[in-house]
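Example 379.
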Amino acid sequence: MKIRIIGAGPAGLLYAWLMKRDDPSHDVRVFERDPEDATYGWGVVFSDVALAFVRELAPELYLRMTEHQVVFDEMAVVHQGQHVELAHNTFHRMARIDLLKALHAACREVGVAIEFERRVEDIAGFEDCDLIVAADGANSAIRTRLQAHFEPILDERPNLLAWYGTTRLFQPLSLIFRQIPDGLAIAHTYQYSPTHSTFLVEVDPATFAKAGLARMSEAESLAWCERAFVDDLQGHALLSNRSNWFRYTIVKNRHWHWRNVVLIGDALRTGHPSVGSGTRLALQDSIALFDAWKEAGSDVPRMLKAFVRLRRPGSDSLQLAAIKSCEWYEDLGPKLGLDPISFAYDYLTRSGRVDHAEVRKRDPVLAAAWERLHPEFEG
Ligand SMILES: Cc1cc2nc3c(=O)[nH]c(=O)nc-3n(C[C@H](O)[C@H](O)[C@H](O)COP(=O)(O)OP(=O)(O)OC[C@H]3O[C@@H](n4cnc5c(N)ncnc54)[C@H](O)[C@@H]3O)c2cc1C
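Predicted structure in complex with flavin-adenine dinucleotide:
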């Protein structure tokens, strides 16, 4: 098959690798608008199960992808200045650039061609291809160009985010809620390498307006965030990498494919950074599209139907959990009066996928502390 992939993120690269490794006669080429060593953002985090499916499918690629990862078992919720540890929350963390480098090298080894600094915004010129894979991220130009066929639903959320790094090593992964004179500042932070942590700051629109963040330069915003988290950063600076404020968009598409064009990864559907599932969703799309090819061969219409059948239920359910999580952060006002234990418990059960029985199993210490504070609960 002649396959053209737009976007060398995790989704596009894993799909390219799977197809070419399985059958070297495939002609697979990936187009990426950025230079090879460019990356946006800092580290990424995965839950323990998130990479298990890569390990099952391709143990050698898993080893490569996780070569520079750090794995820790706990996380902490910091509310009213008190740290509440949540046990058995294992997270794998790594620099996004290391993940991409591992995938670049694996792709090259099996003979995938990757063209960097090649922006593609239209499928004109790809008429002789069997399959065109749009893996060009949340703002997909291909999806926008073909929106009449994919019918995307774009839901821009109200909160604002800025993605920083820092040399302060946050271990365990910490969610920090600081009530400050301007309102509420939230940090999602975790160590992802021996030297650096990701530090993602989130604020609601009222805080954003009161602080005047819209009028600030990048450096002034960074300084405002440093002041908000001065007790947590302990003298370390925040580091910027195009760390401008942005609103996260939840992406859905009514149709996942049109003719021989298919969407995967963030172009198809986003998760939310608060559940750290976007890369997992993207990688699972690549695997499902590969499995669909195994099932239907080069009968492209059948293959794309199989892709939707294999992938849609899992994708919808994880996205629903991501939406519930993102809504929890947007509606924290009534919860800020909760004591730190009840607040951390509320966090843990926010997506609806974890109930009290599950909290008891995962973290009996937290469950017992919460039960003491809520004697009315009959579990
Ligand atoms: C602030 C923030 C924090 C996040 N944290 C996490 C986390 O901790 N864990 C996690 O799992 N996920 C996280 N995510 C989500 C994760 O980054 C994405 O879900 C994941 O990268 C999706 O992979 P993808 O391959 O679909 O898209 P992307 O990684 O976005 O890759 C798309 C690629 O396409 C390229 N491209 C775009 N347009 C064109 C074009 N016109 N022509 C050619 N190339 C193009 C881009 O340069 C890019 O390389 C986070 C996202 C954000 C915004």
